[in-house]
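Summary of Year 1 activities. Much of the first year was spent building the evaluation harness for sequence design. The harness presents a backbone, in tokenized form, and records the residue chosen at every position. We chose the following record to illustrate the format because it has been used consistently in internal testing since the harness was completed.
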């Protein structure tokens, strides 16, 4: 019972993804690990779904919930072992991924995320499609702590939205 309560406190009830509390802990730990390994960075990506509000408003909350659950499942499935995805709330998600020397880098990570989000989801006989505005920040270049990295990713995500 206690373990179930702890799990519920750290996970989003709709999507089953970790929530902000779990994100804060994971990001803190990822940054501590990166500090101990010179040359290792951490990517923080803030993902906001484009086109979600019209689906939710026009087709109802059941359709919106279906989209959020489908996107969460696809994001989880598109990430590498060691990557982390959480739902902040609404239609915002965060990915924390180690930037390892010789790894795919930011471009590969962004491509996998966009592909996962943009594929249509079938609900009540209709294909529902959303896009993704993604803002990225990298430790240590864009910030030294979780708050600074999330703020940088947020600013980059809104910059992406404004350019669309």
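For this record, the design step produced the sequence shown next.
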């Amino acid at each position: 019972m206690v373990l179930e309560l702890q799990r519920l406190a750290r996970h989003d009830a709709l999507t089953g993804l970790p929530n902000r509390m779990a994100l804060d802990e994971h990001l803190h730990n990822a940054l501590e690990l990166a500090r101990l390994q010179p040359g290792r960075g951490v990517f923080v990506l803030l993902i906001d779904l484009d086109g979600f509000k019209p689906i939710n408003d026009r087709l109802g909350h059941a359709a919106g919930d279906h989209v959020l659950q489908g996107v969460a499942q696809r994001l989880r499935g598109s990430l590498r072992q060691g990557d982390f995805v959480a739902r902040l709330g609404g239609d915002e998600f965060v990915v924390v991924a180690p930037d390892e020397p010789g790894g795919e880098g930011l471009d590969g990570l962004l491509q996998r995320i966009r592909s996962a989000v943009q594929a249509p989801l079938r609900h009540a006989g209709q294909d529902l499609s959303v896009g993704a505005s993604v803002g990225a920040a990298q430790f240590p270049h864009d910030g030294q702590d979780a708050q600074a990295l999330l703020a940088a990713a947020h600013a980059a995500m809104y910059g992406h939205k404004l350019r669309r």
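The helical segments are 2-10, 20-36, 52-59, 61-78, 105-118, 146-163. Quantitative recovery figures across the full test set are reported in Table 2.
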